[in-house]
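Researcher: Before we compare anything, I want clean individual predictions. No alignment, no superposition, just each chain on its own. First chain goes here; please echo the sequence and then give the structure tokens.
Model: Echoing the first chain and its structure:
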Amino acid sequence: CVRRESTGSECLSHICISANSFTHPLTMVLAPSSMTKRMKKNKQPLQITKDLGRWKPTDDLLLINAVLQTTDLTSVHLGVKFSCRFTLREIQERWYALLYDPVISKLAWQSMRQLHPEAIAAIQSKALFSQAEEALLAKITSSSQPKLEVFQDLLNKHPNVFYPSRTAKNLMVHWQLLKQYYLLEDQSVQPLPKGEQVLNFSDAEQVVDDAKLKDSRDEVLEHELMIADRHQKREIRQLEQELPRWQVLVDSITGMNSPDFDNQTLAALRGRMVRYLMRSREITLGRATKDKQIDVDLSLEGPAWKISRKQGIIKLKNNGDFFIANEGRRPIYIDGRPVLSGNKWKLNNNSVMEIAGLRFVFLINQELISLIKAEAAKMNQA
């Protein structure tokens, strides 16, 4: 029988744990102490029902395992990650309830027994390291480079010291942490420098040699930067060459009452954020990608991931009528009427076009269209 004393801000209890209960904490029965039997009848039992719903069976099992490992509720509060951010007082009260409250302890024990074996294994793998375990790990010198076989041999030699779920990998990771924080037996924490040595940041800044801070020349990095700069300049030249061929101009709406049309604009698509000017008889609209460029990129207006890369085509016929053809998978709504894939629809002035939640108003330059119709009529008469 191993007797351990669990303490928080005050002495909590004495627990008697058998070897079987230590191997499987779920079999440990938290029976009320005989101290409760000596309590006066007129004294009310400990009432800890306020946060009963916050404590889950996994939290109770974590708490029990951590207390058995460290016997210190302060270490449990600092080292265990529960499902909620419990304060030290809440952890102490819960531990009191598990020990002395028969109702809460019985409910918690029944809930822990219903946990899935995988959940239990996951909780046991997070058990804190006890002082005895760390003492054995600290004996491995920091100058050595131990392999997994060394830690496995340590597990085999001291099965009663290490927690049952420990593996050689767990021991190696924890030993590396001990080494990192100078907690091994052959290590000592370096004292702060005294006397004429550097004590603060300003002193260190004065003694730094700026010449030593200059990085050495990296030819590989300079070559990669030169190639990246060359690619960027090539893309800029390509964009400059494509500028004259763009048929649709996108202008940000600024709230100023600027005219929508000029003598070259046939029509315009006005959205909430941008407006697109149509200056050729046929334009394509959709979602532009790196591999495919289109005339009207609807992604400039808003989220366009549902829009096809080539959603539709707007065409001006010789008689002055505008038509839109749906080339995408999603319907295009014109004044509330759906235009399905492969169909066409006539666009009138002030027609409302909606594509995947993006709404536009189609505006026609009536003066320019009237001139085009007049010229077409003259050509027909001739």
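Researcher: Okay. Second chain, same rules.
Model: Second chain and its structure:
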Amino acid sequence: MKTILAAYSGVKKGSGSSILSALHDLPSVPWLTRSKIVKHLQVISVLQFVITFLAMGIGCSLLLMYMFCTDFWVIAAVYTAWLIYDWNTPKQGGRRSSWVRNWTVWTYFRDYFPIRLIKTNNLLPSRNYIFGYHPHGIFCFGGFCNFGTEATGFSKMFPGIKPSLATLAGNFRLPVFRDYLMSGGICPVNQNSIDYLLSSNGTGNAVVIVIGGAAESLDCAPGMNSVTLKKRKGFVKLALKQGADLVPVYSFGENEVYKQLIFDDGSWWRTVQKRLQKILGFAPCLFHGCGLFFPESWGFVPYCRPITTVVGEPITVPKIEEPSQEVIDMYHAMYIRSLKSLFDNYKTRFGLNESDTLLIQ
């Protein structure tokens, strides 16, 4: 048992060799094989991500408030003072850590599904980019693994390009959780933050925006190939104002890892979901995966389904400080055509049929 614990203790330290050596030293037990231990580590790595996303921010907020009522109030006060001082850091490029992005736990996270990154074109370090990521899925596993970590080798695949995955700005108001997100190069999805990265942080920046956002997550389910994009034009206007090239990105399999109960538009439950989405900033989806101990049961662990993220060809965008609606519509239409072409060119390689089409909502 001590050997097993020693194996897992090296996961977040980034010491992959120590894990493998510990596994080789395990006693020969019929029900305890190296492959099973690796699989357990993969499940744990995915489950910790889900729990972290759902509970870390709220949990740390409650803990901080509780500490003010204990003998540790000084620690809470010091952290709160630092939090106020550091409040604008997420909007100013954040505080990424290559050490965190290269944690060994992310390789187990990657291999659970598994997740792959496909490059179709070179990206110039002398340019800035806005990646449009589709679809959102429930937890955006492909987006996080490819752009919030180095598990799939983004920096080696695109040398000179620094990705910044954009997520809800509200997450950066939560103590500790905000620092955890920033360490992965994750930034708030608001204009101030994105403007800073594209105008005050040099070149070679790639801001990854999940275009469909929370609204799109309400429609994700196995077999669904639809994206919320028809009326989403803000990212195009932002690209024009900053002269950042647009890059369509599609993750095949993102919608396959969870099953969701989808309500019809106009139904009472759908109305409640949309109202809560506007209040909370995220969509309260009714979903399930498999159980932790029994794969045939229901639980929060996602199903093992391959996720393949394809980074498409960049669309060159000129810098126009005040783009007209006509120009915005033109580049928006170009982006949609490019995304559809990307989907059609790769769909049969990753489990879809030639007859499958991408629905733009």
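Researcher: What stands out in the second chain?
Model: Residues 1-15 have pLDDT under 50 and may be disordered. Additionally, The chain has 14 helices and twelve strands.
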